[in-house]
Please model this.
Amino acid sequence: MWWRSSRKSSDRKGWSAQGDPDELGLKFRGWAPAARKILDAPVAWQKFAIVSVDPDRPWQDGRLALLGDAAHAMPPFLAQGAAMAIEDAAVLADCLDRDPDPAAALCAYVAARKPRVAAMAAASAEAGQRFHWSGIMGLVRDVALRASGQRLIMADNDAIYRWQPPATGGTPAAAAPAA
Model:
């Protein structure tokens, strides 16, 4: 299949399922009382499967091309799904403006976007792994974040936030965050 899905959060068919408040309570039992009180507030919980689309699969067929999640849905752990779609649109507009042949412009768009999107998807998946570490690895992660604070997060994600569309002199295939 041209898509892949991680269903670790739901074993039911479909994209969402009823969440179990008791299951959630167990996962956060060691948290501060104020945080647990917030988690107890909703009347119901919903679980959503994390679904991704392989960015290496074809995005274009002649004068038809996909962008955003249709082309490259990614895990949400860097919160870049919508941002990648906006970047896609900027690059696509630039390519269509530069080349009067729609098929050639779409081909240029795909070539310009795939490296960055693939790198972002990989970085997001890796961030998800780090966010879910437990035990000694989770402790090391937490200590590193406390010690370096915002500096580490900003340095790791600099390439996300400094990307510029080609019309402003930026590079559409700018690097992804350091892994």
